[in-house]
Amino acid sequence: MTTGHGHVTAAVVGIFAGAAIGAALGVLYAPQAGERTRRQMRHYSEDAQRKAVRFGHEVKDNLDRALEYGKAFVG
Fold first, then answer.
1. Per-residue pLDDT for 7 more than 80?
2. In the chain, what is the straight-line distance between the N-terminal and C-terminal CA atoms, in Å?
3. Would you say 21 and 41 are in contact if contact means Cβ atoms under 8 Å apart?
4. What is the rounded CA–CA span in Å between residue 49 and residue 9?
5. Whether the predicted pLDDT of 3 surpasses 70
6. How far, in Å, CA of 39 to CA of 3, rounded?
7. Residue 59's pLDDT band (boundaries 50, 70, 90)?
8. Measured between alpha carbons, how far is 59 from 55 in angstroms, rounded to an integer?
9. How far is C-alpha 39 from the geometric centre of its chain's CA atoms?
């Protein structure tokens, strides 16, 4: 049985990926020094990594809560 949660997760991942790609392209085409551009790209990638880890933790927490709810419902 499938639910709509897979579509929501795919949409959220798509939004994050699109934002990351857009930010990278914006930085690459910005008229500034290479060192500053590399520093910005490093900042954006670190920020994206933190957001992805946070999102993963939120998903895990929600799945854990759903599992506990299911156990309580059955038990």
1. no
2. 22
3. no
4. 17
5. no
6. 41
7. very high
8. 6
9. 21
This prediction has a pTM of 0.52
State how far the Cα of 51 lies from the Cα of 66, in Å rounded to an integer. 22
Q: CA torsion sign, 25 to 27 to 30 to 36?
A: negative
Check residue 2 and give its pLDDT.
Answer: 47
Q: What is the mean pLDDT of the chain?
A: 83
Beta carbons of 16 and 55 less than 8 angstroms apart:
yes
Work out the pLDDT band at 1, boundaries 50, 70, 90: very low
Six-digit token string for 17: 């990926």
- Residue 12: partners with Cβ closer than 8 Å, 6 or more residues away: 55
Residue type, 8: V
What single letter denotes the amino acid at residue 42? Answer: R
Main-chain dihedrals φ then ψ at residue 16, nearest 5 degrees: -65, -40
